[in-house]
């Protein structure tokens, strides 16, 4: 399989994903044979994953597929790989890259899946028990598109043994476990991160509605979900919360509302001041991390103070959204990252391409 054939397979995969963006299947007639093979399986997964993991609603799975469909468009995929001339030739030695994947949002491990395969190495994946069905189905699509993918991915149920390198994503607690077991290998180990928003009062209604998406998509479970909002000292919070109301339906989701009611009750018992929208606890708090069903905010007098704080805390932040700040994302873009927007700002593809050919241990 040439590198071009590999990239073409992923471009086609993106077109396949795009058809599932909404509940009304938007068929791509160019993919008739592929759809005959896999449409029914993906339809079933979209509708039944919620039984396995209640956070994986059909809407969230479709959103994930749509986001990856956008990222895999030919021009965007081409822009990503154009920064790595070494991709033009196969690696001197194909290494076994162990990837321990999270399961907080649907297909959260897809970027690592894609990156390892694009790099020319072999993926040995340890899937989260919360998200163990989608990527094997995606893998079957790729093998059907090009049989030369055969043998390049293995899904392991037990502990990874003697990988050549490790990419692991988890909590701060699990990162200590990863460091203990895999610290001797070349590695990327990711910990907890959160995302923030900075408002200055100039935001339009559209901006604030897009901010709501940054907060509530995937129920706020992703590291790219905004969990903390900085607002000017005189900002009227009800003005902001009015633009969140179209997410009030989340109160109908039993796990989400259980979280919301739990933290609401705690604050009532502790007599902690908070605002209540009926589906969201809004609390003034310096911490970036806020539980599901809760959002933190902090007032500021000078924006420069916020910029300094964000810079100091960059190791805690995945991304920041704002309208008039450098190195921030536009509102509504946190859950649609480009392929070059790496988790924890660590260039995974560069890491893989730089691995020494003397590293190999074999699995």
Descriptive terms for the model:
363 residues, alpha/beta, 5-stranded parallel beta sheet, 12 helices
Characterization of the model:
- By secondary structure, the protein is an alpha/beta fold.
- Helix content is 39%, strand content 15%.
- The protein contains twelve helices and eleven strands.
- It has helices at 3-18, 32-52, 58-71, 74-81, 110-119, 134-145, 172-182, 205-216, 237-241, 254-269, 303-312, 348-353; strands at 96-100, 122-126, 153-155, 165-169, 187-190, 194-198, 226-232, 275-276, 281-284, 294-300, 317-322.
- Strands 8-9-10-7-6-11 form a six-stranded mixed beta sheet, with helices on both faces. Strands 3-2-1-4-5 form a five-stranded parallel beta sheet, with helices on both faces.
- Strand 6 (194-198), helix 8 and strand 7 (226-232) form a beta-alpha-beta unit.
- Helix 2 (32-52) crosses helix 3 (58-71).
- The protein is globular, with a radius of gyration of 21 Å.
- 36% of the residues are buried.
- Residues 357-363 have low confidence and may be disordered.
